[in-house]
Please model this.
Amino acid sequence: MSTNPTVGKVILAGAGPGDADLITVKLQKKLRIADVIIVDRLVNPDIIDQYAGIDALVILAGKQGYNDASVSQQEITALIIEHALNGKTVLRLKGGDVAFFSNVLDELIALNKNSIPFEIIPGITAASGASAYTGIPLTARGYSQAVQFITFNPNNYYSPERWKSIASSSDTLVFYMAAKNITDLSELLLRYSRKPLTPLAVIEQATTGHQKIHITDLKHCAADFTGIEFSSPSLVIVGEVVKLHNDFNWFRADENGSIFHELAIDKIIN
Model:
């Protein structure tokens, strides 16, 4: 890494899936000392309000699929490098986990190329947050022994052989970036032999006070979800584990957006 004392440092960090209380203690400390914070679109603003230093320069630099007006990865990378070369401590804050379906590789390559020191702080990815806050374990004895994390959008291409492997598996399938094309996804899984009555859940804005859960199965997905515009971010879970939601769904928000756990309270009282 760089031995130039005028070069700053870059922290690549995950801000979690939405609930501001789910960030790590380490990230809280780094937010307080960062000179420049470059923030993704999906980061909860409360995180910045609560933990950023009062003198920090906060730059909103969110990317958004299907939106040509959003900030490009090239522009974000250039901002990171510019401020770090000016001796600043730069915190690049991403929604979810820093390395789950993000462009962290582009940023890492640029940092190495410019001999800028960096560190990586993990965060709770959307799949873990949605799983926990919907009572849908991604693996569970008797339901699923493995889980696959997959992206699905018009820019993806998977061969018929890959779709057959995905669809014929008994694994839980977690699809990122799929809600806008949910009917296409369900049709592909049916075409390549996933069982028609396999449960499917779409979770909007998981872990936040705006969380919504929509449940159907592959056979009825097109009829149930046609015309619905799911808010971003949304995550899709496909598999037998979705059936567990009815028994173990604990999360909801009151009118003020606070969280409580009725199931746990009942168990303590009884």
About this structure: Confidence is low (pLDDT under 50) at residues 255-270.
